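Let's do one together. I've listed all components of the complex below, 947 residues spread over two lines.
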Amino acid sequence: MALRQTEMRPMGKPIGRKEDPRLIRGKGRYVDDVMLPNMLYLCIVRSPYAHARIRSIDTSAALAAPGVKLVLTGEDLASMNLAWMPTLAGDQQMVMATGKVLFQYQEVAAVVAETRAQAEDAAQLIEVDYEPLPVVVDPFKALAPDAPVLREDKEEKSNHIFHWEAGDREETETLFRDAPVIVSQKVRFPRVHPSPLEPCGCVADYDPAKSKLTLYVTSQAPHVHRTVLAMVSGLPEHQIQVISPDVGGGFGNKVPVYPGYVIAVAASLKLGTPVKWIETRTENVASSHFARDYHMTAEIAAREDGKVLALRVKTIADHGAFDAAADPSKFPAGLFSIVSGSYDFKAAFVEVDGVYTNKAPGGVAYRCSFRVTEASYLIERVMDVLAQRLGMDPAELRLRNFIRKDQFPYKSPTGWVYDSGDYEKTLKLALDRIGYEELRKEQAEKRARGELMGIGISTFTEVVGAGPAHLFDIVGIKMFDSAQIRFHPTGKVIARLGVRHQGQGHETTFAQIIAEELGLSADDVLIEEGDTDTAPYGLGTYASRSTPTAGGAAALCARRIREKARKIAAHLLEVSEDDVTWDGIAFSVKGLPGRSVSMKDVAFAAYTNIPEGLEPGLEATYYYNPPNLTFPHGAYIAVVDIDKGTGAVKVRRFLAVDDCGNVINPMIVDGQVHGGLTEGFAIAFMQDIPYDADGNCLAPNWMDYLVPTSADTPHWETDRTVTPSPHHPIGAKGVGESPNVGSPAAFVNAVVDALSPFGVEHIDMPIFPWKVWSILREHGISE
Amino acid sequence: MRTYQGEFTIEQPREKIWNFVIDPNKMGPCIPDLIQLNVESETRFRTLVKVGVGPIRGKFDLTSELTVTQPGSTASLSIRGGGMGSGVDMKAAMELTDTADGTLLKWKCDAVISGPIASLGGRLIDREAQKITQKVFANLKNALDNLPDEAAVGATDGTAADEG
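Okay, and this is what the predicted structure of the assembly comes out as:
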């Protein structure tokens, strides 16, 4: 049960979420709740074609329709120099199409009217004359020499975007040459979509009297959005205020700047009135940025006793029509080179080639620290292929190959320095808690009876919390993060951070960090995020970076306050500063514990009784540049039963043992894990966005792109081990993404394990019942 | 791209069928769910038709262009247009040959469908296309049977109005 917030020393305690009373009663204030006087509504006309030249656009009927105030096309935006905008990956993306369209549902024209219905009706009256062009949907065919070149705007006449590699090619080749065992597996991570409950949207409010633009927007990174907007629009940055109110789920979907935001801003600039744009579900799934879509091949070289030697990975990454990956600038394939995972490979070599196709642009880091999910899924899947080939138990194979506890800090063959971990302890706890040996016995008995049961293990390592700043930047801005803490005279605190939560519980967890450092209860601390005019600059919430970066900033900022508070305490206690000690709740005189002052006393004195020579007030700001990333890990085990008649997979048990370092609020960690596991379950069993040969998106809504309900979702069991991060100010590592990163492999490994007696070594996600049924049918099990 | 094809026999002489099918004024009304027919020339006509695939309902504005490749036996028809944010691009070919019982009409149609119709109604399109072609040819047959009384042709489009 959740504790009351008034608890002192709140760190590590399951305090009830401060945001919940507001959010669960429907009192949150989301973008679509923003209503401004004279506000108009914007609707976007989208391309039915995946690739076509635009011959002409006739907007006359739409302009004459009731309530219509403005119609915009790509040509109109071009005249404002707004037809193109930079993506976070350093590519250019069309805001609205000029010349041609490159994917279905691409933005072609926009209508602004007095009501949303009028805008939608008028949008139907816009006539666009298209000349269809040959379509490229297969990323492998996109690389063929005779493939049509999609991006005519680029200098390089090719659909190839980038080649990226990591590791040591020669050493890897050498180890492969002499290896007694080599396994190879092609693995696809399907095109999926974060699909938050709240789609994207904004209200752009340009006030010509003040020359100021206020943009209310669904944003995980409001400061970055403001900077990008200043760069794109030419408006001075101090005349732009970005406000990200309550966000109804992000999962990476709300990191990018979308064309709709820029169009709404352009419309508001032209009309001088507020303009609201809220996506439909179809617009969200079919045009806002997707995730994954990696076509990977992994090879492992190993000894016959199962000891792994080297890893070789080749990947074709389908980025769609524009490279809109939300990756740090120097990492076009994100942190994919974490692919050697939890295992002590002597060498590894990883290559990724990015490709343009006529599909929606992406890919974002969907609850994932930049391509870590793809990497973790791949290595965890292929380790099982190796176990199967060698006839070894997958748990035994993992235990034999883990990076040992005494090897940390561990330098991986692709260059990462893992901060800390105890993989053996975590897996052994998981095996023990799930009753692994008994389950294997049960499985053997069931197999003898012809029943299908599978056990899947995933022992992943994540890499999260970007910075450090020397390695990571987004559009050139270094990936630090920030906190600003201000004491009010009565001892209450407001703290503002550069990140922006969307369900992670920052209003509670950051209050706990600050309260812990300052001897307060979490109740005394108000957390505010999302307003660029008040919060210090930060890079935002994604990639499990809030606790590693802004959490670190919050702790160090509080310690900075404590330094000044100690001076004031010495003044109040009438002793020298050296004689003052801090016990976590109060300052006291060394050797005289009875003589003490609380932080509240100090705060009051900071405004009423300041010692001479000291600046009044009690406030600090801290910009934290972490020295390294953090490396959470976990051991997940899935147990499945398969219906022989239908191929349906039932997840009987799922245990997630996470190690995210020191825990701020165990209840919130459990909640994060439950949510991420549910997404991982959906990815494993339900989700894919396929395209037909003409580039039609075949899952542009929640009838075809499935989102699980509580009725579909298995029961989750959770546990944890604690291996603190040695470099993080409070030893925390971040957890929000671990369950999405780690669970897909556990599910798939369990299904493959169930079907392994039939020689099945791999099934690509999503594992729809028909796929399993087809395999069973091939082997004469199903009819 | 989707390809649809079929053939059927009409117990009428080839010439009579040929004259009917290449005349937009006669052939046009055989289109099911036709709302409006606008014959722009001997070979070009515009139609407004009611469309319903899965959850999508609305009107398509289609422009058709007829090309006779071999008078009396083969012709092709290109149909382009769309509506409701969707596009249709079709190339249909038709061939008439004499048989013992009348005339064999063979047809083939390549269709590229784009937009929400293709996305949302994707899995329903083939069945819908089958239904539409069946109706077209039922209407055609009906019209030909009633040909001596040419005024009656338009009235044969009664099969589809309430369906779908």
